[in-house]
Amino acid sequence: MRKAILAASAALLLAASPAMAQQKTIKIGFISTFSGPVAVIGEDMRNSFELALDHMGRKMGGLPVEVIYEDDGFKPEVGKQKTEKLIESDKVDFISGYIWSNVLLASLKPVVDSKTFLVIANAGPSQIAGELCSPTVFSTSWQNDQTPQAVGLYMNQKGVKSVFLIGPNYAAGKDMLAGVAATFKGKVIGQELTTWPAQLDFSAELAKAKAANPDAIFVFYPGRAGVQVLTQYAQAGLKDKIPLYTAFTIDELSLPLQKELALGVPGAQEWVNDLPNEANKKFVADYIKKYPGKKPSFYGAQSYDAANLIASAVAATKGNMSDKVAVQKALEKANFKSVRGNFRFGNNHVPIQNFYLQDVVKKGDDYVLKTVATIVKDDQDRFHDKCPMK
Amino acid sequence: MTLFIEQCLNGLQFGLLLFLLAAGLTLVFGIMDLVNLAHGSLYMLGAYFAATFAAWTGSFVFGVVLALGATLMVGMVVEVVAMRRLYGRDHLDHVLGTFGLILFFDELVRLVWGPEGLTLPLPSWLNTSVPILPGVDYSAYKLSIIVVTLAVAAFLYVLVMRTRIGMLIRAGASNREMVGALGVNIKLLYTLVFGLGAALAGLAGLMQAPILTVQIGMGENILILAFVITVIGGIGSIRGALVAAIFVGFIDTLGRAFFPDLLRMVLSPAAASTAAPALSSMLIYLLMAVVLVVKPEGLFSASGK
């Protein structure tokens, strides 16, 4: 009897295995922040990633897709643990997501060592664009310095002669302030870094900026801190006195809370909801349809692009994930319709792209972001020379 | 000089706000011997209530008054339903139980108000800056926080030192069993004290809300500072909490404001601006360590303990 069962199961196994091989699924791990005060960002990224999967019939290159979402809890050490779990126990083919530069830097080593393909959907620390670049690491966002560099250029256009910089004390904050200083032709008369993410009261820093009496103040405060910094800027009585310039401080997720405080505060961005291309119109319209009461942000747009980039590589290699070089070549081609219009990679796998000036306008009772001008065309990050890949 | 005055006011405002939070914490800790980690949740609820009621009534002041009453009620209900089971138990049980309450309240807020958070917009008469000295403008709202908290501190002083309830509270801090043996309804006293602590935390939360916005988990970071204040000031002592809170507020704000400049004199600018925020946020804990070494009971320990 026992032998019979054994034989039967062996036969079953044999019969099943070719079928299993055909039924391969593409496994994608997605790391973002899904809890705590910045969970809205993670939610927007997941919503957009899911929408991209809907648009492709939840199949990539004819293969079913499984996405495993993991919460980094806004903490580098948790992000690293979750990354290791995705690689070692889930054995994912791709990893995507990552809002925060410090979480990404902590998680980078296990990803690169295991040669798992990484498509970063937001964070852009300078190290990964430069000396830490890797053949298996791609970005559908930007390098941190690029957006503030565009703000610096815009301040030159506006004739700003001196600026005071305020930002959070972590990898991205330092990149952002360095980015403004790189292109701004006037004088940086002060710079303050604040404890991240615990410090939410910026009164001491704003008071110093006020006392320094610059032509302009530049801030970088992503997520909820962006609401706080605008509120306190107004309460300190600076709104009519010293103009504010921002990067990643006003977006569709923070705007419902910032409201009129954001009016007249310019920012730079590589994607704005009104970019006139078909892919973008479809993305924005279907997002609003699928998630009533919500609007996509640039975080979502980059995640949507990440899903489509992965799908393009899976389709090109017909789902054969074992040929790493072929997958890498397919990813480098970036053969997909980006919501930004044309999309291509530089040698370090960071996009070469336009940066736009965005402004807040009031539409009925609603506040919306719109593109005003193109600040810089086909911008490539300033670290690509340090990347050994050619 | 004007910068220094402004930073001092910022420090004073932050310190007084911390006092509201620490006063409730120290009362509950000192009198009921209860470690209440969920105090930060009441701070959060105060802010959520104020934002909701202000939106309903269309008036900031009405919203604040209703929110205070609501937080008081929630505090008393929590005491009756949950805290009573914890008295007389080990401190570890308190920590576990009240940590559970934090998770409960965070999830409750997520279900009721959603994960996005709220804002509490200020009326225009508060959302400006006013001249306090010739050439020195200061945020009208921050100034009003200073005034309100000073008034609350005075009220607490009168309540604790000059009334019968205050006498019972002080007696409870010294010797609980004896107060009970003398026929005082200790259960009711505990419910009242806990409700008062909750209302104070709620007041701190709702006053902070227009500056920091309203979000889930907003009470957790600031609660750490409140505990530090309780330790520095002496457990159970409201006067100690006031002095320690103002100390901590000044050290935090002035440290952030001037420490980086001091550091730049000895370090390279890049190293200084990276190290300064980390070091200045350590100053408070250094103060606590020094106090613990010199006066382990805290600056003003409640008598008889």
Describe this structure in words.
The complex is a heterodimer of chains A (390) and B (305). With 390 residues, chain A is of the alpha/beta class. Chain A contains 13 helices and 14 strands. Chain A folds into two domains: 11-142 and 275-345, Rossmann fold (3-Layer(aba) Sandwich); 146-269 and 355-379, 3-Layer(aba) Sandwich (Rossmann fold), CATH 3.40.50. Chain A has helices at 2-22, 39-55, 76-88, 101-113, 126-129, 146-157, 171-183, 203-212, 225-235, 255-258, 278-290, 298-316, 324-333; strands at 26-32, 59-60, 63-71, 94-97, 117-120, 137-139, 162-168, 187-194, 216-219, 244-247, 267-269, 344-345, 351-363, 366-379. In chain A, strands 7, 8, 9, 10, 11, 12, 13 and 14 form an eight-stranded mixed sheet that branches. Chain A has a six-stranded mixed sheet with strand order 2-3-1-4-5-6. Chain A is globular and about 60 Å long. Chain B is built from twelve helices and two strands, in the order ααααββαααααααα. Chain B has a two-stranded antiparallel sheet. In chain B, helix 1 (2-32) crosses helix 10 (238-266) and helix 5 (140-162) packs across helix 6 (164-174). The N and C termini of chain B lie far apart (44 Å). Chains A and B meet through helix 2, strand 8, helix 8 and helix 9 of A and helix 1, helix 8, helix 10 and helix 11 of B.
Question: Which descriptors would you attach to this protein?
Answer:
heterodimer, A: 390 residues, alpha/beta, Rossmann fold, 2 domains, 8-stranded mixed sheet, B: 305 residues, mainly alpha, two-stranded antiparallel sheet, 12 helices, 3% strand, globular
Alpha-carbon distance between the termini of chain B?
44 Å
- Uncertain residue segments of chain A: 14-21
Our estimate of the beta-strand percent of chain B is under 5%
Query: Which percent range fits the helix content of chain A?
Result: 40-55%
Number of strands of chain B: 2
CATH fold annotation of the largest domain in chain A: Rossmann fold
**CATH class bucket of the largest domain in chain A:** Alpha Beta
Shape descriptor of chain A reads: globular
Domain tally of chain A: 2
Task: Count every helix of chain A, treating DSSP H or I runs of 4 or more residues as helices.
Answer: 13
**Major β-sheet annotation of chain B:** 2 strands, antiparallel
Using only C-alpha atoms, the radius of gyration of chain A works out to 22 Å
Main beta sheet strand tally, sense and closure of chain A: 8 strands, mixed
Strand order of the largest sheet of chain B: 1-2
